[in-house]
Design a protein that fits this description.
The protein is of the alpha+beta class. Helices cover about 45% and strands about 15% of the residues. The N terminus and C terminus are likely disordered.
Length: about 700
């Protein structure tokens, strides 16, 4: 079973009694102070504060768990704020039951409830005790009655989103992840890397890991020409549709598994904070059946129904907001580059992933272990989010990584007392590659670049002003051929071999008429030029010619948009392009060479050489996807600086090939079978499924209501 640092103090016997007495004394003291401070609160006799503190403790320990089950829908809709209102009502009832105690308003009772929760939380923190103690006590009681001894060990798959293998190694070495470091030093676990698909995005990776298939998933978002729709896996309906395409009912979590904080369910019957499950519209009977299967403590609504949880998480969130503002200010003062704007609502939104979602997921995992779930998969998003804005190894990113490691340590300690044995496996869905954003480096977004080269309207170029504000600056109309050629030449450092050949081909070909028309007003998909759609996922951009059916070949693109391909391959921010040739099939174009994927013939310098030995096979696989765009752009990776410019406004980013983004990490018990080299999320799924089989978990069967549909 997983090993780690020695567990923290678990109070037993007399120490538990001492803790209760200290909390009681602290709440009594708080009531005395509130009596002096609040004008609408009066306790006249010396015996009233200790008796009231005792009754309030009974209220929270005995009555409150029963009340919260009834009031759960209200807590769900108010994100836990109603917990304090309900607790305030209980406090008011207790005070009215005590003779001589006067409370003049409901607002006063709510203040007392909040203060009581804060004092109890402060005392627990001072004693190095948190809500794990509740789990430990419940687990010890359950172990006496549960009969799970003959069951195979359970497995917790803990995903640290966006943590690359090399960053994980250095974090272990430098002390940012002491729990994982302790496992490795004890030789109980093995740390290895795995190679992502071409799309090193969470959508493609997690669907492959959980569902066993990521066919036709091109990124975090992509355009499907046949229905004129941009799919975004962060949208509930799109995530549910993607899962329906790839699920056969035999996902990694099928059976009695649980998924926490994921994009897809993995066919788990117990899920929370899972994107694909939010859009499911099921009959009322099915909803009742689902409620019967899911534990009440599994969701964030139950977590925030606990007033102590809500108060603690709110306080830590405020601290995290301060940390973000402080880190952003330090970057500006030191002129750290690359960096992006971190103002607006981001400081308030950041705690959603770094604190709130993390705490809720950990709470759900504790409940899953208490229930003896056989396999659980959870995603910790905080590092990925902060690394996007701060950088992959900046100090505040590593602080978030340390906080995740602390939660993993909590889960390990809980696993020692769970009703069944548990193994812990840590992994990531991809890494991140750092670099200055494409728009900041080159003065226009990739959408603007493609739109301009395809004859679309020229947007005003951004210009930085004081306080980070941007005002438009005039730009020449690039739709005129001569000026377009001048702008393209200025962007390129020199004329590459492939660019020259493409221009020669265009020059020899007969000039074609514009092959697209403006999008109709009914379309919700924005066109960057008449009939041209661009979707972006990190280091990958997709260009689709919406008015032309099917995969548009290279030869047609050259005739109808003659400046597009030469300018793209010559652009210093573009690494390579994937197009389809009528004559040669899928072809990868770079500045100084091309690679014909079907035959393996390379002309000039191989454009895929900087992207590793698996690049050709991974790109060829995407070329065979049903919704493969007409042109796929991968950003340029510089091995000398280990940087690439993402097409989104991020510092650390992912989504394509190039650098650390394509190497996730996998840390597993040494007793598990050696998986060898892992290439692609689907193969990683097979490895994880194989480990479960080796432990004795049964293979899931295809269910009647979860039949896979063609992608």
């Amino acid at each position: 079973m997983s090993q780690a640092t020695p567990s923290g103090r678990v109070l037993r016997g007399g120490r538990t009694l001492a803790r209760l007495l200290l909390v009681w004394a602290a709440v009594t003291g708080a009531l005395v102070l509130l009596d002096e401070w609040l004008t609408g609160f009066d306790m006249r006799d010396w015996w009233q504060p200790p008796v009231a503190a005792l009754l309030l403790g009974v209220l929270v320990a005995v009555v409150w768990p029963l009340v919260v089950r009834i009031a759960l829908p209200v807590a769900f809709l108010t994100f836990g704020v109603s917990s304090f209102l309900l607790l305030g009502a209980g406090v008011l009832a207790v005070f009215h039951a005590l003779p001589g105690v006067e409370v003049h308003s409901f607002r006063t009772s709510v203040v007392v409830a909040v203060a009581m929760a804060g004092v109890a939380g402060a005392v627990s923190s001072a004693l190095a005790v948190n809500e794990d103690e509740v789990f430990f006590r419940r687990a010890r009681r359950r172990r006496g009655v549960a009969d799970l001894g003959d069951c195979p060990p359970g497995v917790l798959f803990l995903q640290i989103d966006g943590l690359g293998h090399d960053v994980a190694r250095r974090a272990v070495r430098d002390g940012s992840m002491p729990t994982l470091a302790a496992w490795l030093r004890a030789d109980s676990h093995v740390l290895r890397s795995w190679h992502t698909d071409w799309s090193s995005q969470t959508g493609a990776s997690v669907c492959g890991i959980l569902q066993g298939s990521n066919d036709d998933i091109l990124g975090f978002r992509w355009y499907e020409k046949d229905r004129d729709h941009v799919v975004a896996v962060s949208h509930p309906e799109d995530a549910a549709d993607v899962e329906r395409r790839h699920s056969d009912g035999r996902g990694l979590l099928a059976g009695d598994g649980a998924g926490r904080g994921n994009l897809f369910t993995g066919d788990a019957p117990h899920v929370s904070l899972t994107m694909s499950s939010l859009a499911l519209v099921v009959p009322s009977g099915s909803r009742r059946e689902r409620r019967a299967r899911d534990r009440i403590g599994a969701g964030y609504h139950a977590y925030f129904a606990n007033p102590a949880n809500a108060l603690r998480t709110l306080a830590v969130s405020l601290v995290d907001v301060y940390r973000e503002l402080s880190a952003a200010a330090r970057q500006r003062r030191a002129d750290v580059r690359p960096r992006v704007s971190r103002g607006g609502l981001y400081p308030l939104a950041r705690p959603g992933t770094t604190v709130i979602a993390r705490d809720v997921v950990v709470n759900a995992l504790l409940e899953d272990m208490l229930a003896g779930r056989p396999v659980v998969y959870a995603d910790f998003l905080g590092y990925d989010e902060v690394a996007h804005h701060s950088g992959i190894e900046r100090f505040d990113s590593l602080e978030v990584l340390r906080s995740i490691d602390q939660q993993i340590g909590r889960l390990w300690r809980a696993a020692q007392l769970a009703p069944r044995r548990y193994h812990l496996v840590c992994l990531s869905d991809h890494g991140q590659t750092q670099g200055q954003a494409f728009a900041d480096r080159f003065g226009e977004t990739v959408e603007q670049l493609v739109g301009r080269l395809c004859g679309g309207p020229v947007p005003p170029a951004p210009r930085r002003r004081l306080f980070g504000l941007r005002t438009p600056a005039p730009v020449e109309d690039s739709r005129r051929p001569a000026e377009a050629w001048q702008v393209t030449s200025a962007l390129a450092e020199g004329s590459g071999v492939v660019a020259r050949r493409l221009r020669d081909r265009v020059g020899r070909a007969a000039p074609g008429e514009p092959g697209a028309s403006p999008a109709g007003e009914h379309s919700a998909v924005r066109r960057v030029a008449p009939g041209v759609v661009v979707s972006v996922s990190g280091h990958m951009a997709h260009v689709s010619f919406a008015d032309l059916a099917g995969r548009v070949p290279l030869e047609t693109i050259e005739q109808r948009w003659p400046h597009l391909l030469p300018a793209l391959v010559d652009h210093p921010g573009v690494g390579f392009l994937l197009v389809h040739s009528t004559e040669f099939g899928p072809v990868v174009l770079g500045r100084d060479g091309l690679h014909r994927l079907d035959s393996g013939v390379v002309v000039g310098a191989d454009p895929l050489a900087p992207y590793g030995e698996h690049a050709a096979a991974l790109v060829a696989r995407v070329s065979g996807f049903a919704h493969c765009p007409d042109v796929v752009i991968n950003s340029r990776y510089d091995p000398e600086t280990d940087e690439a410019s993402p097409f989104e406004p991020h510092v650390g980013s992912h989504g394509g090939l190039g650098g650390p983004q394509q190497h996730g990490f996998l840390l597993h018990p040494r007793s598990f079978a050696d998986p060898g080299e892992i290439v692609g999320a689907e193969q990683l799924h097979r490895v994880l499924r194989g480990w479960l089989t080796d432990l004795g978990h049964p293979e899931p069967a295809v269910t009647d209501d979860r039949v896979a549909t063609p992608a």
